[in-house]
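INFO worker-7 received task bundle
INFO bundle size: 2
INFO processing item 0
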Amino acid sequence: MLLRRLSRHIGEQNWLAVVLDFFIVVLGVFIGVQLGNWNSALADRAAYEDALERYRAELAINLETLETENANIMLGLEVVRDGIDALQSCEDSEEATDAVNRSINLALGTFGISVRDSALRELTTSPRLLALKADDERRRLSDTAHIVDVYSREAGFIEIIPLEKRLQDNALISVGKPVTVQTTYFGQDFSRVNRMLQLAVPVSIACADNALIKDLYTWERWQSAQPAVGRILAERFQADLDWLAARS
């Protein structure tokens, strides 16, 4: 309708009407573009706030996970340290033998740290979301992502290195009778029948085996660093959680 009227006014050489019609067309296009940009900005802001909410939930889960993992690591360290002490005592007693056997079986595995970071990665890599952040928010989240990268890598080394040598390969260790192991993983029951390892010789003989003591020492040395890594991550996650609470 507007274009037909504009054509008629041009044909009638009604230049004032042509200018007014042209102005109306340009204004309509301008308003349409501005409305589109406004809606897009609103959608981007909503996406950013949604990502922050997901990050808030992610932080809460990570803090809970780190607390549980730290408690498990501390218990594991206590078991292995008791085993090393029993070996170094060279005492042939039931208590010493049990302590060494417990430490051997626990040291077959390691404790690790795993954190969720999908929301954090989106906030620090999405060009759409990066454009919405103030400089201080961008720096904070970027620093957190860097800390997660560095300490997750450190946690990986701490978890893997003690497993490079297998305790069951030691000639002084034998395979015992099967027992039922009760355990859960992410809320699922993973109870199973397993064969436990045990000393094949008295503690007074095993204590002379330098390889066995060093293997347990390697486990203790590396795994004892895991709580510090978990604490650093937990402190950063708590700081970000406090920041989000203050921002609301």
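INFO item 0 finished
INFO processing item 1
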Amino acid sequence: MTKGQEAEWLSNKDSIFTSTSSQHFNLYTFKGHLGTKTRLDLLKKREIAYHEISDFFEIETSLSFNIFLFKNEQIKYYLTGHKGFGWGFDNNIVEVFNDLVQMDPYHELSHVMGYTLNQPPALIDEGTAVYLSQQFGDKAFSRLIGYPTKSTNEILLMLSKKDGLKSISTLLSYDEFGNSNNATLDYCQAASFVEFLTREFGKQKFLELFKSLSNTKSTEAEMIFERIYHLEMNQIENKWRKQIRANN
């Protein structure tokens, strides 16, 4: 997706869509797609998510975002050029919303709110989004992938029996997870690792990590991990691996 393609439909959004607004969101839909009550209910849930995520990131509460909801993936792709059910960039969230596909209010919002601080590698970026959607959204990721009663770690151990776990260094080298083999396992592993870092070492160190990583080379990123946590990367990973097995 080029900036030119983004600008074409974004710059014309007010003539393409109808909009409904709340304190922190402008919700854009095609006329006739969603009723007034549904749009207001969606905005109410997004406002709740907004405050929970802003509390986690400890950021200002005066941000505003655009949400674009499409009836199906085909229409979304035709207009935006983006494949998949959900996408977050700049201050925009783009999602499919219908009777079968409804993204949770947290995942893409975690991305775009996190981007106001920094844009870390996929391991931390996606791991944080899944972790927060699990924490605040009643296991939203688990429900999305068909295991509604299981925790991230339970799913992780189940899926890894076939393909095994990738090293943290390997995941740290990925720019994104969507194109990798067994992306679901990668998302679970990243979320489990973020949960471990947050609970084992505290949220403040994790926020320092989130703000420090950017899209650096994986070797440089490992040095940042070691500086913040005062442990070698393999020691951090070993502690994580032992904990997920001990707790499950």
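INFO item 1 finished
INFO post-check item 1: Residues 198 and 206 are 6 Å apart (CA to CA).
INFO post-check item 1: The two ends are 41 Å apart (CA to CA).
INFO worker-7 idle
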